[in-house]
Amino acid sequence: MLEALSYEFIQNALIAGIIVSITAGIIGSLVVVNRMVFLAGGIAHAAYGGVGLALYTGISIFFGTMLFAVISALFMSFITIYQREKIDIFIGLVWAVGMAIGIIFVDLTPGYNVDLMSYLFGSILAVANSDLYFMGILLVTVLFVVIFWYREILAVSYDSEYAALSGINVKFFYSLILVLSALSVVIAIKVVGLILVIALLTIPIYIAQRLSSSLFVMMFISGAIASFFTLAGLWLSYSYNLTSGATIILVSAVALILFMLGSKNR
What we know:
Blueprint: H1 8-33, H2 37-46, H3 48-57, H4 61-82, H5 87-108, H6 117-121, H7 129-148, H8 150-158, H9 160-165, H10 170-187, H11 193-209, H12 215-240, H13 244-265
């Protein structure tokens, strides 16, 4: 693996893996604490519509996916706030319609299409320099928002009623967390794909949650654990010619099982 570090695509893969892992650790912590895992799953699958749109129109895959993901997040937020009793129905609707739109756009795209499996299950070894710039910008955006509004996000995440009484706009910050989740889905496309992104947003967080006593510490530990899982999965996928996204998630799953067994024995 050491000699492989001389290749640019391996260097890009490592940088992309770390960027996505840090983002997943931060946003995944918010997703788990706010019990938004199912919502984030709906956003991730709906984002496939953006992939199809991008291929059909010729725009950037990241831009098309971000557009669909953010719109889906805002719609989910509206439904959760005003039609909470129907949230399961609308999550399934957004999930299915988003993927259906993506497939239709792909069918309508003339000529040869790229391998769509790479968007569903990730293709970290195909990360280009332009992808890294986009990932870096989104990571900086996520960090800025979380740091700037950390107190408000913390209050909304753990006690929304108290936050509302304190004058915090709970609806705004709830929507903001979902939009940040959408952005994390977008930058995870190349690493683990849209299908497997939820595992990256939950498995490291589950472990970190039991090793930390605050949201900030949980975000930090989650990012470190996710980075380890990503780098270990990348090394295994390169060494044994395996699909990178699936390998990263399997490494995470095995680590989670071992952690749970170790915790039970203690």
